[in-house]
Amino acid sequence: MNETPTLAQLFGRMRVSTAAAALGALAVIVGSLGPWLTTPFGSISGVHGKDDGWITLGCGVVAILFVAGRVGRRWASIVAFVAFAGALGIAGYDGARVVKATSKLTIFGVHVAGAGWGIYAVAIGAAAGCLALALDAVVIRERDQQSNVLACGVSEFATERSHLSTQRCGL
Predict the structure, then answer these.
(1) How far apart are CA 57 and CA 49, in angstroms?
(2) Percent share of the chain, pLDDT over 90
C-alpha cells in the first residue's frame, strides 16, 4: 500500500538548512499574499494591482522549487539564493517606503496606517532562506575540503604502501 508521507515526515528527511530554506520560501509566498499596508478601513496586499508582491510571490515560488530540487545540485542552491535575495531587496525597499509614508499619518496623535504583517513575513522569510543557503554552502565547502584532504591522505598512504611492498619484493 502506497501511503502519502506527512509534512513532518518530509521535513524529517531534510537537512536543517533545507528545511529552513523551504520554510523561508513558504513565508515569502504567504507574506506576498498578505497585507503590506494596513489602515482602520482595510488593508492592501502585496499582490494588489501591479504591485511588487507579484514579484516576491514569483521569487518565493522559484525559491521553493529550487530548494526542493537542490539535493546535490549547487546551481539550484544558487538560483534559490538569488530568488531569496531578490525578495529580500524588494521587501526591504517597499517596507521602508511604507513605513516612511505612513509614519506621518496620524489622527489626534494616533497612527492610522502602517506596514502589514505580509511585508515583514516576506523580509524575514527571504532573510532566513538566504542565511540557511549561505550557511549550507559554507558547511558543504568545508566538508568537501575535508573529504579532499582525507582522499589525498588515503591516496598517499596507498602509494607509500605500494612503493614499500615493491621495495620489499625487490622489484
Answers:
(1) 13
(2) 36
